[in-house]
Structure formats: structure tokens, C-alpha cells
Amino acid sequence: MSLSHFLPSSHHLRRIDWLLLGSVLIICTLGIVFIWSASFRVSEQTGDWRATRQPVRQIMWLVISLLALVVMLIPRYTFFVRISYPLYLVGILLLAGLFTQPQIKFVHRWYRLGGVLFQPSEYMKVILILTLSRYLMYRENYRTLKGLVGPFLLTLAPVILVLRQPDLGTAMVFLPILFALLYVAGARKKHLITIICVGLALMPLFYFFVLHEYQQERVVSFINPTGHTRTMYAGGWHVLNSVCAIGSGGVFGKGWGHGTQNLFGFIPADLTDFVFAVLAEEWGLVGALLLLALYYVILLCGLGIAKTTREPAGRLIAVGVVSMFAVEVLINIGMTVQLMPVTGLPLPFMSYGGSSLLSSFIALGLLINVGMNRIPVLADEDFQ
Amino acid sequence: MFYRRLRVLLILITTAMAVIAAKLFYLQVVRGDHYRRRAERNIAYKRDLETRRGHITDRNGVALAVDEIEYDVCVYLRRLERLKDPRAWCEGLAALMGRPTSEVVAAVQAAEERLRMLAAKAPEWRQEQDWKFLRRQAQPLFTHVGPDDIKRIEVGRDRLPQYVEGTRGYSVFIIRDTARRKYPHGDLACHIIGHMGSINREEYKDLKYGESFDGQELKRFFPDDRIGRAGIEARYERVLRGARGMLFGIKDVRGDVRPEMPSTRIEPVPGRDIRLTIDARVQRIAEETLDEQIALLSLQYPPHPGDPPVCGAVVLINPNTGDVLAAACSPRFDLNEMHDRYGRLLADPRMVFFHRATVGTYPLGSVFKIVVAVAGLEEDITSGHTEFTCHGTLTSGSHVLRCTGVHGTVELSRAIEQSCNVYFWSTGLLVGPEKLQTWARRLGLGADTGADVGEALGQIPLAVSRGELLNLAIGQGRILCTPLQVARMMGCVALEGKLPETRFCTRKRIRVHRLDMHPDRIGVIHWGMHDVVQGRRGTARRTAPVKGLTYAGKTGTAQTLTLRKDVYHAWFAGFAPFRTPSVAFSCVIENTRRAGGSEGAAPVIQRIFTRMMADPELRKFFPGGES
């Protein structure tokens, strides 16, 4: 076997969904542009170019992520499906191992490897998609309530571990992925609706016994944002300023590098969770809708791949990845425009942060891989 | 089924996206202007630049009240706490200020303690937030720091450790300058200058005060402002008050101004200075003499417990212009220390804040006889040669009224010289109550003198009975006048009808009223008053004469309203020099025991004039005074 066997041929390259990849790359570029916007004026004035280290690091991470994408495209996705159970085990162990690590920023969320922080929960999302896809691939029993126990257990294990970190935002992504996969795999609507209703009924318990005080405060401030804003550290301050930044952008925005809310520090976490607010302030409604459209294109492409794939695992992977992106985008943007409570969830491909970017690209790699490798299936019915 | 469910998923995602797009449209287009204004408010930095209040000087430009810049060193406690080594900073600052480190540490702790106290005043749910908020603000660490220390701190501030957050370094402390009112002469003319006080809630809410001042936004009052509360400071608040400056800029989320961003600056306009008509030297002499005399009287006649306190006032005015040269009161208070001792001063039975020269009202006693004489002469009822015979008493109905002595047959000038009651009782009866009241008011008694500090009106009663008329004719009874009114009246008599409005400040225009008086008739009164001081039998011949100065005066001893028979108000009023009147004066010592006008009040004027004559600079107040 020669080396060329493993490298993507031109034949392969043509089968890559370039529309999907192109949209992603545009979003990444936008991300770097606005991460720079949030930091460039400081360096321009102080002459201290260290302030530009964040966009530079983001570019570095983008290169690493692109390499990871290429790696993800080399084997068929069935390879990843096959090793998904061991991966799941490794993921759970890594999550559990976090509690032996010293706290960083008061939470057990990262491993410190050399100079970089490694966040296992980001990768656990992708692993869960693979695991559930493999688990649900050839089963019928999820049409009964008893059969749903398995996938739920598989999902709840990481969810609980992530909640304990605590990281409500990431934990919130796991459940929609599960529901989306069960739904498209053919679980009964009746069951799913029952479970959702029970879950909603348990919400007050969840609120009072699981959520930390600061998380409760965020929920309260989502319902009543102007309540305690006499000082800037009250809960609603983040959202109010984010909304103010977005609203003040108007139709065409204040221009790149001229967002006052951004420049003078009024947008909290402007590089990570609230990067959308920076974009919406500086490019206005036009820029915000452009970004939404790009995400919509990604999601449409993903659903298209799911539709054209007949191989059950591939379908499920595609749906899982799409639902993961959708949930992340909706929760993050919903949070910045005050449609959702504040949860520290990054905007995929856009927010500053290596783990998020890398895991998003790995998920993207899986999606493109599914789209590249059409495996013929000889079955009349789906999922047989 | 799979495709159908995919479509449902697609619809779900599309709907959610549409909701977000709708919300974006709402925020950015429908409410865009609202949020744009809010974003602008967020970064708008506005700072008031302190201004200076106008100075108050005497007529020669000697400063009486000035605004001095003082410096406070203020510290950001939160930044200090986050330094790597707060102790090193304390040591550095202590070295710069030349104080022991322990003092700086103690000051920091005191500031912390003060903040905790402040925060504890807030409702409980807000205490924590308030406390954090206050720790982010600069808090005074050392106040009243001298300019030399400040210079050293400014030079050495770069060597002190800075608080670094991100890539920017922030200074742990700032130096704030504030203007504080200083009174170089302490208690000199304290009542005329008046003290300053914090504006109170009602005044601040009052539109006249709160909304704008003088129609200028920059002169607007702030809740913690201090305004003039008495005297010139209160009356000329508009003039003295300076306009604040403004600094508009752009601030970041910490509230720090961004120096690199464009800013606009409106320079502060200091308040205009005010020049008083008071001569500080004369005022000082008058105050010292008054204090001496009161101390002397207390020694001679030791007060019994429960006696009303002995106080007094002296007024010297220029009868030509109405300029008040001196208006001294005793007791006084030190304006510099007033705020620390306010409670004690307020509790003083002598009523320290009472400006006796303009708002103290007293019965006039024999000084009022001048008015009776003027009324008789001007109404053509008596003349300079009219004679009455004094047997020492006057019988009115069943009452027998006693005169000050047996004077025999006296004419007007002799009657004034010896202060013969019988003469003026007789004249008063001839003149009648209405004319007496009219002339008293014409001469400015019981009337506004037009002074530009607060003054009392006093009162001149309309005698309703023969007994009251007799009483009024010698200045007893319900009559009340201020020393300023009496001095002005004396000026009017001296200048034969020239009656200017008094003034304490040279900004006020000189306004002179003219009374229709006959100079040739008034001359008799002048000679009578001349003899009071210089005459052989004058009431003040022993205590008033000044070497080298011929002047005219009239003593008075008024009964007080207390039941005690031996407590009087002692008066001495007149004008100097005799031939060319250029100073009209009045002096009252209230609640003297046994000492009448000649013994209680005349020595004050005598000593003031003696000291003024001894000073070649001050002698010019008596042109042609040598005789």
C-alpha cells in the first residue's frame, strides 16, 4: 500500500461539499476579523502588539483545525463509528478525571496541557453523536419506552458529569442531540413528548436542587433583566449591554473597529460568548443576517447530506452534527439577543477558543466525510 | 418517515432562525435609535471642573475671605488590594510624603472602615454591592495635603507600583483638588462676611436654587454644595459664585476617561471678587476696643448669676456716602473654626451668630432726644432759644417723673449737653406723637437703611397716651432701633439732611436721600452735641474727649425690658470731626450694670478715635479734625 492510497484524490476532493466548507471558512474569517476588532484598537494606541495575540492564536488554531479536518476526511466515517464505544469510555474517563484537576476560573472544566487548555466536554459532544449513531443504527426497540432507556443512559452520563463542572451551556447541547437522533431514527412521537413533558415538570426541582446560585440568578435575570442592575455585576448586566450593543448597531452598523460598546469594554466576554454582539454592533442588521444566512446554509447542507445518505449510521451522524450546530448557534445568538438565559456557550466557528474550534471542525469533518462516502445499502426500509 | 421527520427538523430550525431574525430586526431597526442613545450615554464622560468662589476684601484690598486650593490624596482601595505587594505601595507613598509607613497603613484602614460604615447605611440587600462600588471609587486617604507634599508625590508617582489589568496599568491613587474657604483674619468682621453652609434639601429642590442659578447651567447647585448662609456671602451669592467648568470625553466600562479619545473642555469661570466698604484696620480697632470695654465692665461690675450677658456693637459710617467703615460686634466667632464648634457656638447664651450692629434692636434712651430736638426745630415749634425750666421733676397726672438732675432754666444746646429730661418732655408734648414718629422715621429710625446685609427694622411707636409720649421723648418704652440706624441718623443730623443708604459692599450704588432741613437751626443741636464731649458740663466730658479731635456725641442710657432696675443699654452716638463731619458713629453696650452711656459706651468711641488719630494712615478719616 502506497502513501497515496491514504491521501484524498482529486476524485475525493470533488465529492467534498464545497458550499458547506466555504460557508464555514467564511464564518471562521469573520470570527477572526471581529476578535481582532475587539482587541486591535488597544494595540494601535498603546503600540503594544501583544494585544493582537488573540487573533493570531485563533489563526493558529484554525490551521490546526483544518489539519484535523483533513485527518477526519482520510478514513471512512464507518471507522469512527466502529471505534465509538472505546472513544466514549475514554471521554467519560476524561470528564470524570477533571475533578482531580485544580480549578481554573473556579470550575473543573479544563486540563492544562503545557500552555493550552483542553476542554474534554467539547469533544464529548462529537463522541456522543458517534456513539448514539452506532447504538441506534440497527435497532428497533427504541420504538418502545424500555428501549429508550439505553440511549438516555448513554447521554445522561456525560450530561451529569458536565453539569457537575459546572457547565450548564455545554450540558444543554447533549439532550437536543439525543432527541433529534431518536426522532429521526423513528422513536414514537408519543414517547418523546411524554419524556419532554416529564422533564418540564421536573424543571422546578432541577432549578432548585441542581442549579448553582449564579445560574439561578441568570435565569431570574433573563425573566427580569432590569431587576438588579444598579451595579454592573448584577446578573442582567451582560445581556442588557449585549442587547444595547446589537440594537445600537442599527441597519448598517457602526463600521468595523468603531463599535463603542465593543471598544470601551461594555460587551462582556466579547471574544468568546458575545462575539455575535460585536458583529451585530459593527456591521448592523446586514452583517447579522449575513451570518445567520451562512449558518443556515451550513445546516441546510448538513440536512441535505442526511437526506442523500441511506446508510443508517451516516444519516444519524449527519443529523446529530446538524442538531449540535443548530442548538449551539440558536442558544448562543438567542442569548445575545435576550431570547435565552445566559449560558457560557461559544458560537461554533466564530468564538475565540481552541477547543471549541477544533471540536467543531472535527464534527464538520464527520459531516463532510458522510457526504463524501456514499455507502450503498440494500434494504427496502430505512434503518435495516 | 425519515424524510418527513427530516423536514420537521428543517422546519424547526428555520422557525428558530426566523424568530432570531425577527428579534434582530426589532432590536436594530424598531428600537435602534433607543439603543443608539443608550450606547452613547454609556460612553459619555462628563466631569465637572471645580471653580473658585470670589474673594472678599476690605476697601483697601485686604483679603478677608479667600478660596484656597487644597489637595486630597485619594486611593482606589480595590486596586490597592490587588497589588502584588500593597505594603510596598504604602511604604513608597509614606516616603514621598515624609510620614511614617504606619500612618499610611492606618489611613488605609480608616478608609476601609469608613466605607464599611457607609455601606452599612444602605438597605441590606444592597450593602454588598454598595461596598464593592465604593471600593472602586477613589476614596480620600489624606486630606488638606500641602502643595509641597503634592509636588513630591507628583514627581515620584511613577516609582510607585501600579495596578495592572490586561495590558494597561492603572494608578492606585489620584490627587484631587478642592477649594476651601479660608478667612485670613479669623473672626474679623465675621458677621459681615457671614459663614458658609451646606445647601439643604428644600433649597436644592427649590427651582430657584436647584434648576439653574443666574440662568446658567454651569452655576447650578449640587446637593453637596456650600452656599453663603449669612452676611455678604449670602447676599452676594450670585456674584461670588463661580461657574463650573465641564470636561466631556469618552469613558470605558470602568468609568475611566480615555485620554486618547477626543474631548471638549469648558473652562471654569471663577466668581467675581467683592470689595467691602469696611476698613480692616478700623474694624480691628473697633472690635478690640469693644472687647476690652466689655471685659473692663465685667471686672468693674461683676455679673451676678442669671444676669443677661454683656454684649455690644459699634458702627462707624461715612455719612456722605453711607459706606460702613466698621461694624463691630462682640461676641464674635472664628470663621475658620466655626464648623467644628457649631454646636457650642449655637448654645452660647450670648447669641454669637447675632449681628448686633444691624439686627440688634435696642431702646434708644437719651440719644432719641436729638430726634425730638430736630422735630421741634424743623416743625417750627421750638427754636434754638426756647427755654424750659427744670426743677428736677415733671408732674404728669399722678406720676412724678424725675430728671437726671436739677438744671434750672435751659435752652436747647444746654439741654442736650446735660441731657435734661424735662426740656425734652416739654418739647415732646409740644411736638405731639404723630410728628415725633414722622421725624424719627424720616431720620431713618425704625426704617430700612438700605444695607446689603440682613438688617432689622426696629420700630418707632405712635404714642397713644401722654405717659407714653413722655416716655418716648426720652427714648424709653417700645422704641427699638439698630446701631446702624442710629449712626445713619447721626450722619443725617451732622450733614443737615443728607441721608444716604448704607452699604457694606462697593458693588452697591450710592443713593443719597435729602431731607428738607434748615441748616441754621440744626447748628444748635451740633453745638449741644459738641458740648456733650467738650463742654464743661457735658455728660461725656470725662470719658469721651480725644486729644486732637473735636467731635460731637450724645450719650444714652436705656432701661431694659428686664425687671432688674440696674441693667441698662448704654449708648453713645454722634459724628466726627465736628466741623467737617466725615464719620458718624454709634456704640451700644447692652445689659451693662450701673454703667450708663457715658461710662459704658463713650470710652469705646474715645479709645477707637484715639487709636485712629495715632495712626497717620487712619487719621485721614477725620479731615480737618485738628482743632
Describe the structure.
The complex is a heterodimer of chains A (384) and B (627). In chain A, α2 (18-46) packs antiparallel against α3 (53-73), α5 packs parallel to α7 (149-163) and α15 (312-336) runs antiparallel to α16. Chain A has 384 residues and is mainly α. Chain A is globular, with a radius of gyration of 21 Å. Chain A has helices spanning 10-15, 18-46, 53-73, 77-82, 84-97, 120-136, 149-163, 168-185, 189-201, 203-209, 213-223, 237-249, 260-263, 275-308, 312-336, 354-372, and strands spanning 111-113, 116-118. Chain A is 66% helix and 2% strand. A two-stranded antiparallel ribbon of chain A has the order 1-2. Chain B is α+β, with helices and mostly antiparallel strands and 627 residues long. Chain B has 23 helices and 23 strands. In chain B, strands 2, 3, 4, 7 and 12 form a five-stranded mixed beta sheet that branches. Chain B has a five-stranded antiparallel beta sheet with strand order 14-13-23-22-21, with helices on both faces. In chain B, α16 crosses α18 (421-431). The longest helix of chain B is centred in the N-terminal third of the chain and has 29 residues, at 2-30. The relative contact order of chain B is 0.10. The model of chain B has no long low-confidence stretch (mean pLDDT 88). Chains A and B meet through α2, α8, α12, α13 and α14 of A and α1, α2 and α6 of B.
